[in-house]
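Internal ticket - ligand job 526, magnesium ion:
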Amino acid sequence: MSDQLEQKPRQFEMRSGPGEVKPDRRAWSPESMRKCQQRGHFSLHSVDHETKRLRVMKFGGSSVGDASCIRRVVEIVERNLSESDIVVVVSAMSGVTNRLIEAAARSEAGDVESAASIFDELYTQHLAAADSLLGSPLERSRIHQQMRDVLQVGKRLCEKSNVAGAVTPEARDVLASLGERLMAPLLAAALIDRGVASEAVEATEVVVTDSCHGAADPQMHPTRERCEQRIRPLLRRHIVPVVTGFIGATPEGTVTTLGRGGSDYSATILGAALDADEVIIWTDVDGLLTADPRIVSAARTIPEISYREAADLAYFGAKVLHPKTLRAVMQHNVPVWVRNTFAPDGQGTKIIPRETAIVEGVMALSVMSEATLITIELGITGGPNVVGRALAALTAARSDVLLSSQTSSENNLWFIVPSALAHRAMEVVRREFTADATLEEREGISQEPNVAIITLVGGNIASISGVTQRALDALRGVNVPAKAAVHTSSGYNISFILQKKDMKAALTTLHDEFQLGQAGIRNMMA
Ligand code: ADP
Ligand code: ASP
Ligand code: MG
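stdout (structure tokens):
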């Protein structure tokens, strides 16, 4: 090792955002740098970095669920480093974000002690992983301290929220972000332990977003600049940045989150900002499948699919991709892969910019099962522009409308929202129309919980005659009544609204009907 490095160990900093996580003053030691050099993962001299491909690899919660999973992730990164530079984006360990949100709920309800017990559990869980992964006692105690600091932020926020009687959207985002903040330094340390030069990077330093807490959108121009300042120099030095997924920060530095499951979106945001050659979403299934394999056992991995089709599948519920994932790369033509961390030699799914469909037809099915149908009946005295008003009010309140439809007279409007947002959506709509003289006080606005939306996705299927009828007939054949069939303007989807209890029967029936389990078939005929 050069004297220069011996004398001047690098002072890397895990810069703290407004979440007040204390800085990590040394992400890797001279000892670990020596290891990296011995293994050939690190060079003092700039080599062919400029010509090397760049991949952004995102590892989801299930891929980092415990120490043995994290070891697989380290192996995947290590194996791929000879071919490309890699930026890692990582989620919280599976289940951790749910626990953090639970802690927020408990403290809001006045139960600070039981909220605190969640942080203690999370400490034990992460400690076990760190102790199993890290050989050096020094590194272990450094990571332990860092974990305590991160969790202390959570405890303090819960105490404050308890006193105030509410968790603010800002505090909720900081709390929700802590799982990723525990994970990124741990994964970086595990890489270093294997001799891969690495550094944890807080996404608050690089992903600039608007201030919509819980569903923030990126501002790509400043994000690009920050990536050049913070990530590119690491790549030039052959250091693997491990970025916290799911998180961003406003230009002023307030922590935001991109929405549940948002690490996929983080990966494509960084892929676009860094002009990556590809983005790989590593998860716990073989790729993007023709249906959720947890529900349809005959589901098959799709080898190649277009951005548009994959975006529709994600939008209509395929959890494997956050609904906005492809938005970030659409203008940049960066291919996105979905691959299995637990079967890394499998081919996976390649999501490509251009349309694949020479033959158009049904490609796959998605389902959203936690949905509520809200209906506004205005009778013949309905006021002007009811639809526009309702949707504008819901949009302003960020109450995601998954689907909506109206009668031609505008006297009847229905829309579907995620059940978790139904209460808020009802309030928003009632507020909007209560003062309306044409609407008898709150009457005419009703909700029906427990509905499911099943969506057929494929190139131009909405304009292929007979597809909708064929699906409806198949559903009728198994006694599943569909309340409605609708398609959006993309023409790539047809959705059926049904009761949640019929979801599984409907999915398996439609999967069979369109022969989606059979390779090479795109079933278009009626
Ligand atoms: P991660 O922890 O890697 O982010 P997620 O749980 O968010 O993983 O997403 C992976 C899960 O998505 C799979 O285990 C699978 O059950 C579910 N899923 C739903 N629809 C699909 C689909 N069409 N293809 C693949 N997986 C799907
Ligand atoms: N950890 C976050 C969540 O559970 C983000 C993600 O998993 O992508 O929603
Ligand atoms: Mg996910």
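Auto-summary: Confidence is low (pLDDT under 50) at residues 1-28, 40-47. The CA atoms of residues 208 and 273 lie 11 Å apart.
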